[in-house]
Amino acid sequence: MIIKTLVENTATSEDLGCEHGLSLYIETRKHKILFDVGESALFLQNARKLGVKIADVDFLVISHGHYDHGGGLKTFLRENTKAEVFLHRLAFKKYYASRPDGTLEYIGLDDDLKENKRLVFTSDRFFIGSGIELFSNVAQQEPLPTSNRGLLKEHEGDLLDDTFAHEQNLIIEEDGKVLLITGCAHNGIVNIIEHFHSIKSRMPDYVIGGFHLSSSSGSHESFETLDRIAQYLLSTKAKSYTCHCTGLEPYKILKAKMGDQINYLSTGSEISI
């Protein structure tokens, strides 16, 4: 299995573009999968440079209804004419961010795309194929990341704190290895892994994606919280590859505590499993 990072906040080379977003290309023995499409058409430009043919992708998973993960959807549907797109049934609701200067910014998906016939809406536990499934409805045993503050949803004309019911996670199983792939882990990376354990009766071998430990304002989770998360991740024995909304400073703290059990994915990074 090969995983290539098409879009992330940073890049391994000046030849590759980066943006506040995430897009991962995953090639298994049977499938070519795209997980998220960043905030623009940049994922396609980088894919061409990295030797990935978006037209050949078998299906796309959008992790949740935020622009930095689904903003490239229109470009994907134009470039790829066959793949189904799996989104949570709440992904096209209205989502906003309250910015530090007091302004309110729409951060949801392009509403014009929601009637596209290739979209498949999911909920709870959804099986795409043998060894490939999605899950949402994560139980909140641990507090949600404080960096979720200011992220809102529209409900019956009011703006409320987002509960991130629209967020889903991907499981891939191949050759006895099990991967858990997250977009932003707004539901809390510990909660997500615990939910994974509750449905799979085991821990993942790999945890890949954003852990949402920092916010756009530059703040991040407390050192106590980061220490607790590091100890938890170590206890799972899983190898972690993180990126995007984890934040560089929280990553450095996790790295100092976890050593080789965690690494960072930038645009252009490639994992071979």
Structure keywords:
273 residues, alpha/beta, Metallo-beta-lactamase, Chain A, seven-stranded mixed sheet, 21% helix
What would you say this structure looks like, in words?
There is one protein chain. By secondary structure, this protein is an alpha/beta fold. The protein has one domain: Metallo-beta-lactamase, Chain A (4-Layer Sandwich). 21% of the residues lie in helices and 29% in strands. It contains 6 helices and 18 strands. It has helices spanning 42-49, 67-70, 73-79, 189-200, 223-236, 248-258; strands at residues 2-7, 23-27, 32-35, 59-61, 84-88, 95-98, 104-106, 119-122, 125-129, 132-135, 151-155, 158-161, 169-174, 177-182, 206-210, 239-243, 262-264, 270-272. The strands form 3 sheets. A 7-stranded mixed beta sheet has the order 8-5-4-3-2-1-18. The protein has a 7-stranded mixed beta sheet with strand order 9-10-13-14-15-16-17, with helices on one face. It has a 4-stranded antiparallel beta sheet with strand order 7-6-11-12, with no helix packed on it. The longest helix has 14 residues, at 223-236. It is globular, with a radius of gyration of 17 Å. The model has no long low-confidence stretch (mean pLDDT 96).
Brief digest:
The protein is an alpha/beta fold. The chain has helices at residues 42-49, 67-70, 73-79, 189-200, 223-236, 248-258, and strands spanning 2-7, 23-27, 32-35, 59-61, 84-88, 95-98, 104-106, 119-122, 125-129, 132-135, 151-155, 158-161, 169-174, 177-182, 206-210, 239-243, 262-264, 270-272.
